[in-house]
Backbone:
């Protein structure tokens, strides 16, 4: 995909000029950024983004990128003499004149943003090279996420209307046609837009869908007709955003939305995800939580990572230093890693000594599970042994070969581990005939309490589910943040963790069939799917657990 470049662009390197990339950030889902957009963000010196897309794009920018705050200019502020920050156009031009690479990010597609178009003209007038990276427009992306095709097999006409700028002629043309109309409007004016279409010739019984917060996990869609949409939104007790201008996309027409509720029920792939919109607490370190959080997002959840332990070096590092030197000098036949943190501890010690993965040559390497194995591969080491069954110390022992003096020239195993690890693996290896250097590679200590807002959400029922991956995560979370509210779904990785949760007064709702974090997430998704199916069968609104807590009101859809 090639970006569109201005005809006077000769590249910033030629004259030491800056360059501006006008970038579409899409309608809200960070996954809708294009590969070219991610590439441009990684090379930016200055990132100038609309407030509603800043968090979407900033994660792909390099550390230290400048992100000047944009002004929100309104007549009331100006009249009152409120200091106004510089607007986007001036910020873009100033940075580009200074020879910097500027990314100007807007929601949707820059070709549909009038301000971006004006800024492009200013760049062209001053001879500043620029390029355009298209994005997914909300008028196209939101209906796709709502399960509302804009065309059927007959290839019906589609009209796009921006209710903020539409005049009488525009409304008249759309009202008189039978084309599918995609109307960009706001939550507080959608009923007025529907009435405008009826007054211009559309039948009141014409079906429509209205989607708010499209492509995000706050998305919600209502199906109605032009004549009933006001009553449907009132009955649903939809709360508008504080400023009353929350954007929505309404799709009007017999072909697109028709068949209406029945058809959308078949095509609503996004909002029907098993954990759609669930806020799930993941009490693990960020490194450990990454793949688990990605899996939860694939189920529609919003993961919130809260570290319950902090990892620190051992109090006396000499034992670890001797073991690493012994690894290099041929003291060990095997090294066994029982956690990602153990891999990290050994890797850091290697880097301290100027060593790399080549130091493992001739040594057999074992990993307790898939995540630990992945951390080793990232280090450049392919493990020789990973449990074929249960991913635990017991599972590792099941596959570990007994010491054989004929085939094993060395009888010693290096076991770098946490200070609080159990003796199961050590005892099992000794029973198999191996000598074990059981070395404290790192210490685990209770993490600092999370922010007050998070603690209140935990105790007040603001989270829909909590995943407990060990007994220590139960004890530590309760210790630093308090006990989760009784409406929160409690999911545990195994019987021992469940027992600890129950000892702390928690009701365990989900138990993983295997001691694996990914199986635990799967089990939670199955639980969520069952709850959803039961609600639909009973004709009820599919509510998240947090929405059912006593005294709770439906949250704003912002």
Residues:
């Amino acid at each position: 995909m090639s970006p569109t470049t201005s005809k006077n662009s000769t590249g910033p390197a030629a004259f030491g000029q800056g360059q501006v990339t006008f970038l579409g950030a899409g309608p809200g889902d960070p996954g809708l950024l294009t590969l070219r957009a991610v590439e441009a963000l990684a090379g930016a010196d200055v990132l100038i983004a609309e407030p509603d897309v800043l968090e979407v794009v900033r994660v792909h920018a390099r550390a230290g990128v400048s992100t000047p705050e944009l002004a929100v200019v309104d007549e009331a502020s100006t009249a009152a003499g409120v200091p106004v920050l510089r607007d986007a156009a001036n910020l873009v031009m100033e940075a580009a004149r200074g020879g910097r690479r500027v990314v100007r990010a807007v929601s949707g597609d820059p070709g549909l943003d009038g301000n971006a178009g004006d800024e492009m003209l200013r760049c062209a007038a001053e001879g500043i090279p620029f390029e355009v990276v298209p994005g997914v427009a909300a008028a196209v992306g939101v209906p796709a996420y709502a399960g509302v095709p804009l065309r059927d097999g007959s290839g019906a006409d589609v009209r796009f209307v921006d209710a903020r700028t539409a005049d009488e002629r525009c409304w008249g043309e759309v009202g008189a046609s039978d084309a599918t109309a995609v109307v960009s409007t706001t939550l507080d004016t959608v009923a007025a837009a529907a009435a405008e279409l009826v007054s211009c010739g559309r039948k009141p019984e014409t079906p429509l869908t209205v989607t708010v917060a499209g492509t995000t996990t706050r998305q919600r869609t209502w199906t109605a007709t032009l004549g009933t949409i006001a009553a449907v939104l009132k009955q649903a007790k939809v709360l508008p955003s504080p400023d009353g201008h929350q954007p929505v996309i309404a799709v009007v027409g017999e072909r697109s939305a028709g068949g209406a509720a029945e058809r959308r029920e078949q095509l609503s792939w996004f909002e029907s995800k098993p954990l759609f919109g669930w806020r799930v607490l993941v009490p693990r370190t960020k490194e450990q939580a990454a793949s688990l959080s990605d899996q939860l997002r694939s189920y529609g959840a919003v993961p919130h990572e809260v570290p319950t332990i902090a990892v620190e070096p051992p109090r006396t590092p000499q034992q670890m230093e001797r073991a690493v030197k012994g690894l290099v000098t041929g003291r060990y036949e095997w090294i066994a890693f029982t956690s990602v943190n153990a891999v990290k501890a050994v890797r850091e010690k290697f880097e301290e000594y100027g060593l790399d993965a080549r130091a493992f040559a001739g040594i057999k390497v074992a990993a307790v599970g898939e995540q630990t194995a992945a951390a080793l591969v990232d280090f450049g080491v392919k493990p020789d042994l990973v449990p074929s069954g249960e991913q635990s110390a017991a599972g590792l022992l099941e596959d570990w070969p007994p010491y054989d003096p004929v085939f094993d020239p060395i009888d010693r195993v290096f076991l770098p581990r946490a200070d609080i690890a159990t003796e199961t693996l050590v005892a099992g290896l000794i029973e198999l005939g191996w000598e074990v250097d059981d070395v404290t590679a790192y210490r685990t200590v209770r993490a600092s309490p999370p922010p007050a807002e998070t603690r209140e959400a935990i105790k007040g029922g603001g989270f829909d589910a909590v995943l407990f991956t060990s007994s220590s995560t139960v004890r530590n979370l309760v210790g630093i943040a308090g006990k989760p509210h009784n409406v929160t779904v409690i999911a545990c990785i195994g019987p021992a963790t469940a027992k600890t949760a129950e000892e702390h007064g928690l009701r365990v709702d989900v138990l993983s069939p295997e001691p694996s974090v990914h199986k635990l997430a799967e089990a939670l998704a199955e639980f969520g799917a069952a709850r959803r199916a039961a609600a639909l069968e009973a004709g009820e609104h599919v509510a998240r657990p947090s929405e059912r807590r006593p005294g709770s009101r439906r949250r704003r859809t912002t």
About this structure: Residues 333 and 410 are 5 Å apart (CA to CA). The domain at 140-267 is CATH 3.30.950.10 (Methyltransferase, Cobalt-precorrin-4 Transmethylase; Domain 2).
